[in-house]
Amino acid sequence: MVSDNKVKLMIGLLPILIILLVGVDLSLGEMTPAGGWAHIFSDSDFMVVFINIRLARVISAFAAGIGLGVCGILMQSFFRNPLAGPYVLGVHTGPMVMMALLLLGGDIFGQNFFAESSRIGISFICTLGSFAILMLLLTLGRKFSSKSSLLIIGLLLSQMVSGFINILVGMSKAENLKSLTLWNLGGFERTVFRESLFLLIVVLFLSLLSFILSKRLNILLLGERYSVTLGVNLKKVKYLVIVISACFVGIITTLCGPISFIGIISPHIFRRLTLCSNHYYLIPGSAMVGACLALSADIIGQALTSFYIPLNGILGVIGVPLIFFYLFETREAKWQ
Amino acid sequence: MAMISGENLVFGHDKALNNPISFSLKEGDFVCLMGDNGVGKSTFIETLAGMIAPLRGAVKLNNHLLGNIGAHEKAKKIALVLTERPSIDFLRVSDILKMGRSPYLDFFSRLMDEDLHIIEQKSKFVGIEHLKNKFFNELSDGQKQRVMIARALIQDTPILILDEPTSFLDFKATADILILLKKISVEFKKTVLFSCHDWNFVSKICPHIWLLNDKNLITSSPEDLGMSGLFPNLSPALDFDMSSFNYWPREGQSSFIEVNFFTENEKANLWFQHFCRRNNIKRDPAGKRLSYVDDCWYLENESFKDLRSLEKALLK
Amino acid sequence: MGFKVKSFFIILLLFSNILWAHEKCLTSHSFNKLNIEFAEFFEIWQRKKQLILINKMPWDGKKAIFYGKGIKKINCSFSLSLLSEGPQINIASNSTTHIAFLSLIRAINLVKGFSGSHYVSNPFFIEREQVGPIVELGIPPKVERLLKNKINYFFSFSTLGPDAEGFSEFSKVGVDPIYISEFREKGPLARAEWIRFIGHIIGKGKEADQKFLAVKNRYLFLKSLVTQEIKNKPAVMIGSPYMGRWHIPGAQSDFAHIVRAAGGKYIGNNKQSNKTQTLPFEKVVSLIKKTDIWLTHNKWKSMKDLREGEPRLKKIINFNKIKIYNNNRLMTSDQANDFWESSGVRPDLLLADMIHMIHPKLKTGNQLRWYQIIK
């Protein structure tokens, strides 16, 4: 089996790539330890910076990439739609509106919720937002059969949510607005070490849960009705997928801002490289591709020292052409 | 012993589609479910397979209520081939076949020797072993259907239910699939139920026909169904021809041409029979005289080498 | 060769023509140019009670508009944009800085409308807005409200020009926007000098000139006080973290100039730029370790706010060694901050604040106005 070898090769190569990228990303920054990298542990001042700023940044990039990669494959398999993804379907708008309420709430309700709660706490509130959007997507998406209609529903939902956010923005004050705007640009630099560890642990746990779903997701590829005849409890899988995806998007979005396109691209890259649709490989593979993408985007952002390019700027510029590439390629394949 | 039986069953998604019906499907039965589009064949099949609950009455599997059997247990008893097809990129035929084993597999979906043997054997039987490494999306419709049937066989269930396995298939593929189903039923002693519209084939290979008609289920044989005149009423434009057990478009008001035809050549006789039937021509001793001698047709005194020109002359 | 030289002179001639044409013409019409000391974006010409004000547009700094006051026509190559001559002056604006300018020459009572009034912190303005004479015009300002409230002077802050900001309709109904380019000026005093432009245009020229003179003298006095007395220069950083990125004004910004004028060493950013940069945290760590006084410009009012806003700081900064100030002492509950409104108008007070923070032993006679210490 040719494809099996390819899969094993990729599963073996990706961790090496990740280690390389982590190394590069960790080395990017203004400061170097006194006496060179060999004496890194003796420079306690540097270690403080290294752990609290650099390591925190790299861990959140790594964790967010993994989370979005897994979330992407979960959504694509569950909706059985290659164009599904947390950002394209507007799932991130759920946390966005929650965040807008929290950040701008002070201007509207006279109570600033954001300042008074930890961001880890906020991430649970934002998860509710993404859960609501996913449920809406699911119930509305069922009424239409075509694959692109799901995209249109996602688009319309996010338009509605951004309409709501715009209302909040109109009522709010300049200072808080600045925070919201910058939050929207996305970035891994804003997480504290504690938060990035929290993110990593949650993401790994959720990824493990998703991995446990592999068998059922494989069967689900045949279609919902087939999977029922093969003994899959569809309702259970549905709620698990929705809850896991909601947690992924809610927590990542709260801590790193809405991050575009990693979710939709990672599964495609891995599938294209391995020609594999087996979730036992797809889930770890897509997770690792996601981590590579997130780390690379962070490296680009960090390496360009003379000016600031926000994360979503980089991802948008790289991500959309990749999606177009995918669309054109599948279209050609269908004509042949 | 009845494997699947229905007692006063009323099915439907929200509103009832039929009067209460009772039936039983025995081991080794080979049954074709027929009926007009929209009469509820698919819903009936879904109800039989326990995918939707009956509105009233009960479906029993080996005398147990189907609703009480767990999804996993059910997956080892009933295998289905549905009209929907997976359309996922990079899904290989071998992946799909493996999924047939999934009710028997552990968490990591590891395939044991026994599983591999079953996959091997069944895919050979269905004749798709050479397609194993292909992507499902690359296959032809007939091949896809064969793969889906092989997958259902690999599920290794005593009962196999197929929802319109021949829809969208061409003449040859339809024949192949139906003959394959018959073979499966005989070889593995499986109970096979499938829905189909193709009376022409079905009547020739199927011992049992279930007809969903006018909210009732008529269980019968093709012969009885043909004779009973129930089935022929399906369309006012069709007439059932007892002699050929097949359908012909209903004749026009009167025939315009009367021909007196005589030949000793059996083949020419058959040709002319079909020709007359198709063109509303009546054989009448008082009509024009047509004869066939030595590969040549003679209408009155005119001779025709070419059948098309003969047809023209006759219909003039 | 000959052609090149010729064309060079022709170009020079044309260029000087554009530059000096209006000066020549105005001088020949016996207009006097008022001495503008620092500002480069406006000129004021006077002939008895007649005024011609020239204002370079803020978005490109080249195109100029000529405003006439008390004069309708002049036989020059430019045309005059007429200012309303009605007895009543009704001012509207879309920038809080304009309110601070108007407040300085006691002209708040002339303000009748504002676009985005919840950003204003001026107490006189707020009072008048609550009582009624000042109307919110909407963002962008609605032409019909402008007309209904008989606005005849619209002071406009614009970075993109009238079409992009939605002001092009104003000229059609006879209210030519008056663009205030103060934010393009280089140097605190150049900025503050715009009080003279505003003052002359609304008929309070003399008062404005006096006020500016006072501001200038006070600024220069404080500056000289510092240069006389100070030898050590504490390191001062200005920077505000937002979502993990720091916003730090360039070394040629007005903030940096004032920090240096107050006897501090500005270490925010070693670039020769006046623009604010967005830097990653790590770049700031090395700066902040050298810093004695850190000025932050955001919402924080206490150490608790700071810890919540950027929890990593407590691991990096020695809070005993560094003094932290924020510029929000006069921030209203609506988050309108008088600092952004008035500090450009009163560089003397800003300098006094800076001296108070950087060299508290120097007696300026001022208390901290905008900054407050974060403890």
Topology of this structure?
The complex is a heterotrimer of chains A (336), B (316) and C (375).
Chain A: H1 2-27, H2 44-78, H3 93-109, H4 113-116, H5 119-141, H6 147-171, H7 174-184, H8 193-212, H9 214-220, H10 224-229, H11 234-256, H12 262-274, H13 279-303, H14 311-335
Chain B: E1 2-10, E2 21-26, E3 30-35, H1 41-48, E4 56-61, E5 64-65, H2 71-75, E6 78-81, H3 93-99, H4 113-126, H5 141-154, E7 159-162, H6 171-188, E8 191-195, H7 199-205, E9 208-213, E10 216-220, H8 222-228, E11 238-241, E12 246-249, E13 257-262, H9 266-279, E14 281-283, E15 288-293, E16 296-299, E17 302-304, H10 307-315
Parallel strand pairs in B: 3-8, 3-9, 6-7, 7-8, 13-14, 13-15
Antiparallel strand pairs in B: 1-2, 1-4, 4-5, 9-10, 11-12, 15-16, 16-17
Chain C: H1 2-28, E1 32-33, E2 42-47, E3 50-56, E4 64-69, E5 81-82, E6 91-93, H2 96-104, E7 111-114, H3 123-131, E8 135-136, H4 143-148, E9 153-156, H5 162-165, H6 168-172, E10 177-179, H7 188-192, H8 194-201, H9 205-229, E11 235-238, E12 240-242, E13 245-248, H10 254-261, E14 265-266, E15 277-280, H11 281-290, E16 293-296, H12 303-309, H13 313-316, E17 323-326, H14 338-342, H15 347-358, E18 372-373
Helix pairs in contact in C: 8-9, 9-15
Q: Outline of this structure?
A:
The complex is a heterotrimer of chains A (336), B (316) and C (375). With 336 residues, chain A is mostly helical. Chain A is 77% helix and 0% strand.
Explain this structure to me?
Chain A is mainly alpha-helical and 336 residues long. In chain A, 77% of the residues lie in helices and 0% in strands. Chain A has helices spanning 2-27, 44-78, 93-109, 113-116, 119-141, 147-171, 174-184, 193-212, 214-220, 224-229, 234-256, 262-274, 279-303, 311-335. Chain B is elongated and about 85 Å long. Chain B starts with a strand and ends with a helix. Chain C is α/β, with parallel strands linked by helices. In chain C, the strands form four sheets. A five-stranded mixed β-sheet of chain C has the order 1-2-3-4-5, with helices on one face. Mean pLDDT of chain C is 85; it is low at 13-17. Classes of the chains: A mainly alpha (336), B alpha/beta (316), C alpha/beta (375). Chains in contact: A-B, A-C. The interface between A and C is medium-sized, with 32 and 28 residues.
